[in-house]
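User: Sequence in, structure out. Go.
Assistant: Echoing your sequence, followed by the structure tokens.
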Amino acid sequence: MTAVLEGGAAAPTAGDPSPPEPRRRPWLVPLLRRLHWMAGVLVGPFILVAALSGAAYALTPALEQQVYREALTAPATGEPLPLAEQVRIAQDVVGGAAPLSAVRPAPEAGATSRILFAAEGLQESESRAIFVDPVSGEVRGDLTVYGTSGALPLRTAIDHFHRGLGLGDVGRLYSELAASWLGVVVLAGVALWIVQWRSRRAGRRAELVRPARGATGVRRLLSWHASLGIWLALGALFLSATGITWSQLAGANVSDLRSALGWTTPSVSTALEGEADGGGAHAGHGAPAAAEVADPALFDEVVAVARTRSVDVGAIEVRPPADASSAWVVQEIQRWYPTQVDAVAVDGATLAVVDEVRFEDYGLVAKLARWGIDLHMGSMFGLANQLVMAAIALGIAALVVLGMRMWWRRGPYRDRPGAAPEAGALARAPWWGMAAVAVVGAAVGLLLPLVGWTLVAFVLLDGLLVAVRSRRDRADAPAAPRA
């Protein structure tokens, strides 16, 4: 028999064969809370460094326009000199020790041309740039530039710190760790935000989208953290996803996946037909030797040919062939909107177009990759883009600081409510829940190796700390009285 409790609930009586089974405690939300908390505490410092240095990098394009104003501007007005003459002026400055690697003609009136050389002693992707006034021929600067963006020394230094703390490939693991975990932490945070939104009364939901007025202590910190986090979620996920494409381990996995799915970015072919065996059409036109293919006189002729095809913007780069079996390349480098990165390969002997690649022919994924990188670097929409990226990065830094402050106020691993999210949630999960977590964890770990490795390390460390705390609690507990 059963007795009826107040409210209609049935209570077991002595005559019942067995009491009702206890309701299973929730496991998914506590697991997400534990993951968000643990990753935020242990990876938060890496994310903080990446966010602050990223904000600084986002603002440097505008800053370097002022710092390097003399090198970047050309005061003379009038008809520009032929590229051949500008190249010869730069070669006189450099001498014969450094080979010519590329030329970036002045993209507009009032700007200088960049003549790039592969000088000894430079790091990978660095070039020595001679800045020439295209009208007067005056040498306005002699600086080291980096990458396809042509970053000048100030931006290069911040970029190296942002990507790898100035420690090379080993240091780049820090930024990959930050970029990989940022997405995981944000997704877990958004899920927890949704849970909080659904469980709160209408009057308390407002503090999840704007900081609570009059709140104090941890509640005030949580309101700022939750409301700021939900507004920054999409931007943070974007920075995480695009940042991963530059990483070493996960970036290589992304490249392999794109190759397997046919989502690669097309590149212009510089191979000249018939050069593999020394014959063909090119051999019949007096093919220049490898040391002669960068004849300055050819720059103007090659650019003129490219202008008859898809190259129709001022921001271009002209690359001479590496050897006699390769073509010249004229590449658009307009990374702001509308994106124009068309490329034309030209046979230097015949001035025939060998190959051509247009941005409009890129696949959707290749276009998204191009736009994503340019947005991340702040070049797509100029100063507005840079200010938005800096604001998102500073917002992420603020989230980390707020989270660390909450952790400290509550007391790390102390005996007080809310000190740390409860451990052991996964052990309470049903078999299918454990299997789902294992599958998702394995997939994430394969794509983002640093997440997989550090997650294992975090779980082991967390388990060790909980075990030490439990042992300490048992030791401090009063002994039971003897019978």
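User: And one key feature?
Assistant: DSSP finds 13 helices and ten strands in the chain.
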